[in-house]
Each structure stands twice: as C-alpha cells, then as structure tokens.
Amino acid sequence: MTWEWHLKNRHLTIERRPLVMGIVNVTPDSFSDGGRFADPKAAVEHGLELVRQGADILDIGGESTRPGALPVPLEEELRRVVPVIKELAARTPTPLSVDTSKATVARESLNLGASIVNDVTALTGDPAMVEVVRDNRAGAILMHMQGTPATMQLEPHYEDVVREVGDYFEERLQALTATGLAREQLVLDPGIGFGKRRQHNLELLARLGAFQRFGRPVCLGISRKGFLGRMLGERPVERRLPAALAATCFAMSRQAVQVVRVHDVEETRDAVSLFTALSEL
User: Fold this and answer.
1) Which domain holds residue 245?
2) For strand 10-14 and strand 3-7, is the pairing parallel, antiparallel, or unpaired?
3) Is-catalytic flag, 8?
4) Catalytic residue of the set 102, 224, 240, 261
5) Active-site residue, 261 included
6) What residues have CB less than 8 Å from 215, skipping those under 6 apart?
7) Cα–Cα distance between 64 and 38 in angstroms, integer?
8) Which element (helix H / strand E) includes 253?
9) Which of 212, 166, 225 is nearest to 190 (CA)?
10) Separation CA 3–CA 55 (nearest Å)
11) Helix 40-53 / helix 74-91 crossing angle, nearest 10 deg
C-alpha cells in the first residue's frame, strides 16, 4: 500500500519502507541524551549528521516529555527551538518537524521552515493549535497519551488498551476533519510509554496493525524507551537499541508502521532498508 502525507509545501509518499524520523532534542533534561544537544549550534550539527545517516525527517523539540517532566515556559521553548529550525531549514531540504504542544512555538517554527507539528496532546493542549496547523496546511502527528508527562505514569489504566487508543484516534480524526483539516495531513502515534504500563506497551506493539483501519500512516516511537530497559533487566539507555530494532522489524512484518521516530538513525535505516529488501523477494 502507498501512503500520502501532505505537509506544508510538499507531499511525502510512503511505500514499503517506513520513513525514519531523526530526533533532535534541544533540551537540558532529555532522558535519552542528557542535554548533549541543548546548545543550538550542537543541535544543528547533530541534525545535519542525522541527515547524513539517512534521516527522512528531523523532529526538533525544546520541551522534554519524559515521565515526570514539567512544562517549559513559552519563551524558553522558543529560545531553544527557533534558531535550530531556522538554521536547519537553511542548510537541508529534509522536512522538519517541531515537537511541541504550544501553538506559538508551532506557528513560529512553521514560518521558519518546519512543515510538520508533532504534538503529544494530539492538538488538544493549546486551543489555537488546530488553527495553526490548518492555516499552514502542515502535517501533524497525533499522539495518544493518558494524562500529562508529569502524571502519565502514576496510575495508567485500561480495560483494552488497543481498543481505547483506537477509539481516541477515531474521535480525533472526526473532530479535526470537521474543522477543515484534511486526513492526508494526519499521522497517528499510539504513544508507547506515554501513560502505559509495560503490558500496555507490549499489547500495542503486538496489535499495532489494528490502527491501519484508519487509512493513515502510523508513527512508532519506541527508541530508547524505559520499558525496553526494564524488560531486559534494567538495561541503560545506551544498550536498548537491539530491542527497539526488533520491535520495529516485528511491526514491519505486520505492515503496521509507516514512520519510525528514533535517536539511532543510521542503525535504524540499515535495519528497515534490509528488512524491506528481503520482504520484496
């Protein structure tokens, strides 16, 4: 199956190989890279390196959404993100995504060259966000999260996590298309690790194909996630890559994933490219 994702000023076509979205954290407190790229210059160079490694998209974020994270003030998030978006847009044609739930940050980023809004609140956290995405005809990633980053891992509970996440996607797609957004602008992310226990995450991974019924690409973000470390005997962040690649290839075997959001671009690109080549024989 071929998927079309409409972004600001361009369209992406997704066929058998998932798009690889490289993560650029412009934060001092990311769980995954400990603020290594908090300096804008370092973040830009890291983004360009991810492009050299094969990233199809760069996702730039200035607010950590790790469990327990508190919101970042608007001006601080703008200070972190805006110069990175501006410089990357000038130096690479690779599509840029801004990872934010603030409409002002999204608007400024889209004005400076971003073409996607990756919002962990699925465009619900800021009343102005839908208008920003609609008016810019931007792509958007809608993620499911139970609670907020500060509270999501306190007591997550589901009767049937796959059904409930699916119900949420159905509601959001209906609500957003009613405002004038095109379905072709939207990608779905089940939010692995966002308000889910280990068993919830495993059920979502095992049944990820259930979300293909919406006719929109599915984004999988499991890179370096804590539940992978806990499953493997408290593996530290830097030793979780093999598990993430295994889960990605499993999802590909079910034709259940179209975008993978990762820190380790080169290794992921190698894995998905080889898996795709073997699948086509």
Assistant:
1) 3-279
2) antiparallel
3) no
4) 261
5) yes
6) 183
7) 11
8) helix 241-253
9) 166
10) 18
11) 40
Q: What is the pLDDT along the chain (281 residues), one digit of tens a residue?
A: 899 999 998 999 999 999 999 999 998 755 555 567 778 899 999 999 999 999 999 999 999 877 767 789 999 999 999 999 999 999 999 999 999 999 999 999 999 999 999 999 999 999 999 999 999 999 999 999 987 776 767 778 899 999 999 999 999 999 999 999 999 999 999 999 998 999 999 999 999 999 999 999 999 999 999 989 999 998 999 999 999 999 999 999 999 999 999 999 999 999 999 999 999 99
- Give the pair of three-digit tokens for residue 79: 């200070």
Catalytic residue among 80, 102, 107, 225: 225
Domain with 19 in it: what CATH number? 3.20.20.20
Domain total in the chain: 1
Which distant-in-sequence residues (6+ apart) come within 8 Å of 253 by Cβ?
Answer: 275, 279
